[in-house]
Amino acid sequence: MRNVPLASVDAIARPVLAIGTDYPPGTMLHTHSHRRAQLLYGATGVMEVGTDDGAWVVPPQRGVWIPAGKPHRVRMLGVSTRSLYIEPRDAPRKGDQCEVLNVSPLLRQLLMEAIEVPVKYDRQGRDGVLMKLVLHEVAGAEALPLLHVPLPREAALAGLCVEFLRRPDIHAPPATWAGQLNVSERTFNRRFSLETGMAFGRWRQRACVLVALSRLAAGEPVTTVALDMGYDSPGAFSTMFRKTLGRPPSHFTMA
How far is Cα of residue 30 from the mean position of the Cα atoms in its chain? Predict the structure, then answer.
């Protein structure tokens, strides 16, 4: 199925529904949720996914797992998606957190085939077997935690994190954040680690990488992104970027 609203087929009694959708660049899907769990795969472009407890950036050829009922928002940067919508009882991944997943060549091909399957496919025939296989592949897909930044539940601290994601600065000092919260730097660092599971410096670096990834995918030059984020040079930025994601920034820039 292609460019079909989920609501029009959601009630059909099949464990998995597959829909392919093309989105204009910059499309924003505001906060919503699905009764079914979702694997959202971007065949092209970059997706930014946000929830109340974290932010994820999904490069091309990766997917994001969204648990059933999880409120989320998605910004599409030139994305053509292939989505699986899975009945909660058949969900192959557990937990209530989103995850960015590596999509293997086999899973990628299965997703391409799945959207060609009719909505009322024969569960005992070839199409039913294909859908069962795609669930097995989703269950075994490797999670990519480096493409996620957790957000604190404490409102004041979460507000500072969200503001940072809007205007990231690799040199933002923890002392400044501590002052805004009227606590000592030591108390701030302890609270930040407890709330996010990460030291502030590590969180700051990962947040910069994820925001940079989106900007690069939107066509911004590496030099502009690097200097905007406070790096001393594009080379310093590229070194950090490669160390974090295993690939240089040029790998994610628009051709």
Answer: 15
pLDDT band of residue 255 (cuts 50, 70, 90) is: very low
pLDDT digits over 134-171, tens only?
A: 999 999 999 999 999 999 999 999 999 999 999 999 99
Q: Lowest-pLDDT range, 7-16, 105-114, 217-226?
A: 217-226
Tell me which DSSP letter residue 7 carries: G
Query: Strand 54-58 vs strand 28-32: parallel, antiparallel, or unpaired?
Result: unpaired
Question: With 80 as the cut, is the pLDDT of residue 12 above it?
Answer: yes
Give the separation between CA 254 and CA 20, rounded to whole angstroms: 22
| Helices vs. strands in the chain: H and E counts, helices first | 8, 8
What is the spatial distance between Cα 34 and Cα 70, in angstroms, rounded to a whole number? 7
The secondary element (H helix, E strand) that includes residue 16 is strand 16-22
For residue 246, the 8-state DSSP code is: S
Amino acid, single-letter form, for residue 219: G
Domains of the chain (ranges plus CATH)?
A: 6-146 (2.60.120.810), 151-252 (1.10.10.60)
**pTM confidence score:** 0.88
Q: Work out whether the CA dihedral 105, 211, 55, 16 comes out positive or negative.
A: negative
Contact 203, 149 (CB under 8 A): yes
Computed over every residue of the chain, the mean pLDDT equals 93
Burial group, residue 226, by CB count within 10 angstroms (0-12, 13-18, 19+): buried
C-alpha 161 chain-centroid distance: 17
